Every structure is written in C-alpha cells, then in structure tokens.
C-alpha cells in the first residue's frame, strides 16, 4: 500500500507552468510578438450523467420517445444542452442491464451508440455505468441456472465493451460488489446476486474485470461502490492481492441525509488513497430541499409524494457544493467527480438533487460550480508576449489550450509532463 499524498487546499498541484516556444513553419521564432492563450478543456474529469440527452441525440419526439432511461424529454433536453456543456466534459451513459436489454437478444446498442457519438462530437469523454450489477438485472435471466447466468453475463460484458470501443473510455466494471452476494430483492433473489453468492466476491470481480479487459485492452476499469466502510477496503485489498488490475476506485457520495463535511470527506479519501489508485467520486449529490431523515438506513426506503427544492435548501446546496468540490480537488488522488444529475427531473428517489430546477432554470449551485470550473479554475483568453527567442511561460490547470498568434492558431497541452519538458508550437 502507498502513503497517500497530503491534501493541499491551495490546489497548487492542479496547475502547472510550461514554457512555450512559438515557431513559424519555416523554423523562425515569433520573436517579441503578442499572442492570446486560452484554455479549451480541463484534463480533470468534471462529469455528470448524460441520460437527459439520449432522446435528443436520437431525434425523439413526444410521439415517438423511444426507450427511456430517465431524465428530460427531447424538447426539454434541447434547452439544457448549453447548461450541461458549459460546465461538464465527461458524461456517464446508462447500461443498466434491465433497461439496456429488456428483451433477451434485443439490446439498445444503436440507441446508446448514437448518444455516445453525439457526446463525442461535442468533445465530451464517456463512461459506461455499469457492466455488472445485481440491481436492475433483467427479469428474463431470473430463472436461468447459475452456469447460464455466468455465461450470459460474460457475453454481455464483452458485447458492450466491444461495441463501444473508441467511444466509451471508462467503465464501471462492477458496481456495489460489497452488498452484491447478500442483496435482498424482496421475494425473489436476482440472478446476479445468486451468481455472486455462488462464486464469491473476488471471483465475481475477476469475471467482470478480465472480460472487460479482454474486450477492450485500452479502456479504464473502475471498481465502484457506495459502501465507504472498512468492508469496501477489505474487498479492494482482496481484489488487488488476487492480481486483478483495477484502474480506479469509485466512491459514491449521495448526501441525501446531509453534507459529509470536510473532515469526514478527507478521512474517506485518505483511507482509499492508500491503495495508490486514482479516486473517482462516481456519484455525487447534494440536496436543495429537506434532507432525508437520519434514521433511514436504505435510502431507497424513503418515499415521499413531493420533495421540492426550497430557497433555503438551494442556498445550502450551493455552499456545500463549493466546499465539497474544493475538498475533493484538494486531494491529489482525486481524478474525477461526477455529479449525479443536471436537473430535478427524473432524479433518483425524486429528490431535489439537481443543479437545475425542474423548470430548466439554474439553481445557485449550478452558478457556483460554473464559476469554479470555468472561471476560478480556468484560464480565459489571456494576452501574453514572446521574448526574443519566441518563448513565453503559461500557467494554468492541466488540460488543452490554444494560442492565437498573428493570423494563426495552434493547440497544446498543459500538464505535469509538459511542465518538465516544455512545448514547441508551430501554428
């Protein structure tokens, strides 16, 4: 195990300085020349779910909405596109098996491929969620013998990773494995829980990771869970000791019962950072209305007829969201944050967890996050001047940049490696 890096509230580790040298195509330097540099994309994964835009990408109408994965209809989604793209650069697409393949042998592959291409055309990276999960396993698999369940699950994982090669870069290989073999699904145990109980947690992890890795050697695979206890730590230890290659650890933070606070958040990050793997805050929510009662153990048990956003709750949500993102970004191990839902429409449990109200207007939390991502942590158009050898220094957050010089434009990247080596740019 590795000693986790210490958090730094100044976020100095997120920014880098690079020396650019600007040369003309003939090799001569742009000496003593005014240029404009600006950021075009964060390297850090600022994510949100992409469910709202599946119908829009597929050209759905009110008369022919197609399959529904939750979120906005196509008309509403059209009004949300600019809000989403103004903040987020990574989308999570839904591969919940029961919805993705409601009829055996008839997966929604083309529909999700269309959505994936729609996002990639807009410069958005993609994550698939999840490949293996007990909840929302298909009803048609329920009565199959264990050997068939395993065979079909293996084929499902290979099929999805192969079909989305070059589009989906990251997958939750297996989701909520801590509870998987003991999950109680009312009267009838789902097929995936039954399989996990038969195989065991670590063999189940091996199944998911190795099938996904074989189908897509270049994809990044995440072990994801909501359980922040030592049980998840023990599971991770066992998975890694078994030689299963994990690319990142997913940590869910649905804070329906209240903000974790800085101290608890950092304690959790430190515990999971000791494995030496990047941390993905894979599902994050904060409420802008009444909080769920503290005595509720399974959040799914809290069902209320109406759960509105309130002015007081919206102010609290904005304050807590800024504090939470600052705390997460202060920890060097954190590589990605996915906020779970843009709007209150179709939100999990009907909670007022979105950053945008049901009527499409931004909440204070949206404005606050936008200011962080595209102002405080962003290099807007900045005028600089080269020296006599065409050199100049640029400092900013890791990511993609462009430089405009005379009548030309060039792109460059900024990150730890470029900070050490410098960059020569020829427009």
Strand order of the largest sheet: 3-4-5-6-7-8-9-10
- What name goes with the CATH superfamily of the largest domain? Glycosidases
Query: What is the fold named in CATH at topology level of the largest domain?
Result: TIM Barrel
Largest sheet data: 8 strands, parallel, barrel
Distance between the termini: 45 Å
Shape: globular
Mean pLDDT: 93
- Beta-strand percentage range: 15-25%
Uncertain segments are none
CATH architecture classification of the largest domain? Alpha-Beta Barrel
Count of distinct strands? 15
Radius of gyration: 23 Å
- Helices, by number, come to 12
The CATH class of the largest domain: Alpha Beta
User: How helical, in percent, are the residues?
Assistant: 25-40%
Protein name: Beta-xylanase
Keywords: Carbohydrate metabolism, Glycosidase, Hydrolase, Polysaccharide degradation, Signal, Xylan degradation
Catalytic activity: Endohydrolysis of (1->4)-beta-D-xylosidic linkages in xylans
Domain GH10: 61-372
Overview of this structure, please?
- The protein is α/β, with parallel strands linked by helices and 427 residues long.
- It folds into 2 domains: 12-40 and 381-425, Immunoglobulin-like (Sandwich), CATH 2.60.40; 44-376, TIM Barrel (Alpha-Beta Barrel), CATH 3.20.20.
- The protein is built from 12 helices and 15 strands.
- Strands 3-4-5-6-7-8-9-10 form an 8-stranded parallel β-barrel, surrounded by 4 helices. A 4-stranded antiparallel beta sheet has the order 11-2-13-14.
- Helix 9 (262-273) packs parallel to helix 10.
- The chain is globular, with a radius of gyration of 23 Å.
- Its EC number is 3.2.1.8.
- Residues 61-372 form the GH10 domain.
- It comes from Nocardioides luteus.
């Amino acid at each position: 195990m590795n000693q986790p890096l210490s958090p730094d509230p100044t976020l100095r580790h997120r920014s880098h300085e690079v020396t650019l040298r600007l040369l003309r195509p003939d090799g001569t330097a742009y000496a003593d020349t005014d240029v404009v540099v600006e950021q075009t994309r964060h390297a850090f994964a600022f994510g949100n779910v992409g469910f709202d835009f599946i119908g829009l990408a597929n050209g759905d109408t009110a008369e022919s909405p197609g399959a529904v994965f939750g979120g906005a209809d196509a008309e509403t989604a059209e009004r949300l596109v600019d809000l989403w793209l103004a903040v987020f650069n990574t989308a999570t697409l839904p591969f919940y098996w029961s919805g993705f393949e409601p009829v055996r042998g008839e997966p929604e592959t083309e529909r999700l491929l269309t959505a994936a291409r729609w996002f990639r055309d807009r410069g958005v990276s993609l994550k698939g969620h999840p490949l293996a999960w007990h909840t929302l396993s298909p009803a048609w698999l329920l009565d199959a013998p264990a050997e068939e369940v395993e065979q079909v699950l293996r084929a499902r994982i290979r099929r999805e990773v192969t079909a989305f090669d070059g589009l989906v870069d990251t997958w939750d290989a297996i989701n909520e494995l801590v509870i998987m073999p003991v999950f109680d699904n009312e009267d009838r145990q789902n097929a995936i829980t039954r399989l996990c109980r038969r195989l065991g947690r670590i063999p189940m992890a091996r199944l998911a990771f190795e099938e996904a890795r074989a189908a897509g050697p270049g994809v990044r695979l995440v072990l994801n869970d909501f359980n922040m206890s030592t049980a998840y730590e023990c599971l991770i230890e066992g998975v890694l000791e078994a030689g299963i290659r994990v690319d990142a650890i997913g940590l869910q933070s649905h804070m329906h019962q209240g903000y974790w606070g800085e101290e608890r958040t950092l304690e959790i990050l430190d515990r999971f950072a000791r494995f030496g793997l990047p941390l993905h805050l894979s599902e994050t929510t904060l409420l802008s209305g009444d909080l769920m009662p503290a005595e509720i153990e399974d959040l799914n048990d809290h069902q209320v007829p109406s759960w509105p956003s309130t002015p007081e709750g919206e102010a609290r949500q904005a304050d807590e969201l800024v504090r939470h993102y600052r705390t997460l970004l202060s920890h060097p191990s954190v590589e990605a944050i996915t906020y779970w839902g843009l709007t209150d429409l179709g939100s999990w449990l009907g909670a007022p967890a979105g950053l945008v109200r049901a009527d499409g207007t931004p909440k204070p939390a949206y404005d606050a996050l936008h200011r962080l991502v595209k102002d405080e942590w962003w290099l807007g158009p900045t005028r600089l001047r080269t020296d006599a050898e065409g050199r100049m220094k640029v400092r900013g957050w890791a990511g993609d940049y462009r430089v405009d010089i005379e009548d030309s434009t060039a792109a460059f990247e900024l990150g730890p490696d470029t900070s050490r080596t410098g960059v020569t740019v020829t427009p």
